[in-house]
Amino acid sequence: MGLFSFFSRNKSSEQIDAHNVSDLELFAPVGGTLLSLREVPDLVISEKLIGDGVAIAPERSTNMIYAPCDGTISRITASNNAFTIKRDNGLEIYVTFGIGTNAFTGKGLSSRIIVGAKVTQGTPIINIDMQVAKEDLESAIVSMIVVNSSADIAKVISSRGKAQAAKTPCAWVYLKDSENTND
């Protein structure tokens, strides 16, 4: 066994362990290259002010943003560039497309779902015409953030590398053990 196969095997076993023991496994909402939130050119996201998670530099062929997990759509922005999925346990997952959206009107984006809709992992949420949408944005990065205030979160672990939309697990959420918090 070569050195690189050892590292590949460890990464796979780490992801298997995360899948088996995490409280929530999140799948890539778009295909592309997984990045740390620290690499996102937006201070609120890169400093993890609202929460931790993972970012994705989307493939040029991206035309859809998918639900990273099961839950209820609790928010969709007017410009259709972001949505929130709320889980039954109160955990909220915020997915946002693009950086520099202050004046963004949502040209090139359309929602396929409404607030209050129940979704399953892989449900198509937002249609993207990437060429049109990118015209008014600084960056087309997609960020997926586990909102700090939504549950008693112990940690979020994210992956690196390439991801397939709605197929690649890319972040794992661990909640604090309720038995240990009653001190």
TrEMBL record:
Which coarse location class applies to the principal site listed for this UniProt protein? cytoplasm
Signal peptide range equals: none
Q: Name one Pfam family in it.
A: PTS_EIIA_1
PROSITE patterns found in the cross-reference section: PTS_EIIA_TYPE_1
Keywords linked to the UniProt accession: Kinase, Phosphotransferase system, Sugar transport, Transferase, Transport
The record's subcellular locations are: Cytoplasm
Q: Where is the PTS EIIA type-1 domain?
A: 42-148
Q: Does the keyword Transferase apply?
A: yes
Q: Would you tell me the protein name for this molecule?
A: PTS system glucose-specific EIIA component
Source organism of the structure: Succinivibrio faecicola
